[in-house]
Design a protein that fits this description.
Helix content: under 10%
Oligomer: single chain
Number of strands: 31
Number of helices: 1
CATH architecture of the largest domain: 7 Propeller
Number of domains: 2
Radius of gyration: 23 Å
Length: about 400
């Protein structure tokens, strides 16, 4: 065999190897062989905050396990040690009972894909199944009770479903369809009734794009608040005083510090005895803002500080409220910095972390899926893997401390 033949054979072998590798990648992409996805937690914490900051903010990630819920009680207003996730591309459910130190498989199926989870006060689990757009109800021990067909659209994030005194309510979120509704259960998720509906962009008389938040007011039994987005005229807030049976518009027509109604656009909220709080999921005069509202009718809404980028999560911690932004908006041709703020006094926002990536990937980062409150100084969120610590998506575990 001459040198030319050897070179030709070598080239042919290399060509076959490249083609084979390409085919393997295609197969893994389309068939999503989850057996190769290893659930693995970072060995150490990554410090995010500047060394001069009063606060220390650190993260670590459990890869290939997607955040569903950090279980929270609206009766005690306390977060638990329990974190629930689902393995990527699978119907596997994993449970941690020790604040994410380790996760154990509690349910497995090849025919479903989990998207959302809510644990009731009785410890039942309500999950949204994405492939068939249905609710699945589980016992506390993760045995299937039943599946239920409701309106075909899930809730947005962890502030879009709640429970008060045995009443569970969630608000629908999705794309451009005819209408979205609010659903209510008073039998621990066994059955659901539609209690409120608004026309959406798929209709000829659009009122909202979709619902964002529905939460019970922990200081006023029977009272709930509901919000919607996205365009200014679609950003509204409603109030119920009969556990979600009826709703009335309490949108502030003249918010203090804002010129447009998109000050009412948010995907997470917090309550204290006097105010409702949120960070806007929209820009007002170039910045997202920190907002509080007195419980008048209509609400008395007031802008109290700037938060810069659009807020997707608001976590209550012992040190104050933590606002986690996305990084999708452009300003002067560049992506606005991803930011994380803390408000220790519920009045002023202090920057904890900033990521400048002006030409990088647009991301929602946690996409409104995060802890409602921390357990001690630990909380959790969904993590898409594109920013902060690049790599496979997973459950991000956050730690906030005072230096």
């Amino acid at each position: 065999m001459n040198k030319e033949q050897i070179n030709n054979n070598t080239s042919e072998v290399n060509r076959i190897l490249v083609i084979s590798l390409f085919l393997i990648i295609i197969l893994l992409t389309f068939f999503k062989c989850d057996d190769i996805l290893i659930i693995d937690t970072d060995d150490s914490w990554t410090l995010l905050s500047d060394s001069t900051s009063k606060y220390s903010l650190s993260v670590k990630v459990t890869r290939n396990l997607l955040f569903l819920e950090h279980v929270y009680s609206w009766e005690s207003l306390q977060a638990s040690d329990i974190v629930i996730g689902t393995k990527r591309y699978s119907g596997d459910i994993y449970l941690s009972e020790n604040l994410g130190e380790d996760y154990n498989l509690v349910f497995s199926s090849d025919t479903v894909k989990w998207m959302r989870c809510f644990t009731t006060e009785s410890k039942r689990h309500i999950l949204w199944e994405e492939l068939d757009s249905t609710i699945w109800l589980f016992t506390p021990e993760w045995d299937v009770i039943k599946s239920i067909k409701t309106g075909g659209y899930s809730w947005l994030g962890n502030w879009s479903i709640g429970e008060s005194k045995g009443v569970i309510i969630y608000a629908e979120y999705g794309g451009n369809v005819d209408h979205f509704s609010v659903w209510r259960s008073e039998d621990d998720g066994e059955s659901w009734q539609k209690v409120f509906t608004k026309k959406a962009r798929g209709s000829n008389e659009s009122e909202i794009r979709h619902f964002h938040v529905v939460q019970p007011d922990p200081y006023y039994p029977g009272t709930w608040y509901l919000s919607s987005g996205d365009a200014p005229y679609e950003c509204m807030i409603w109030k119920s005083e009969d556990d979600g049976l009826t709703w009335k518009d309490v949108t502030d027509p003249n918010p203090n510090g804002a010129k447009t109604q998109d000050v009412h656009r948010f995907t997470a909220m917090f309550f204290d005895e006097k105010y409702l709080y949120w960070g806007t999921d929209d820009e007002l005069d170039g910045n997202a803002v920190f907002v509080r509202a007195e419980r008048t009718e209509p609400l008395d809404v007031e802008v109290i500080d700037n938060l810069e980028n659009l807020v997707r999560a608001l976590v209550n911690t012992p040190y104050g409220l933590i606002f986690i932004s996305e990084q999708k908006e452009y300003r002067d041709g560049k992506l606005v910095d991803l930011t994380i703020h803390i408000s220790p006094d519920y009045k002023n926002a202090i920057e904890l972390y900033r990521l400048s990536d002006p030409t990088g990937v647009r991301t929602g980062l946690c996409f409104s899926r995060a802890s409602i409150a921390s357990k001690g100084n630990i909380f959790f969120s969904y993590f898409d893997g594109s920013k902060i610590i690049k790599g496979p998506p997973g459950i991000m575990k956050w730690k906030i401390e005072v230096r």
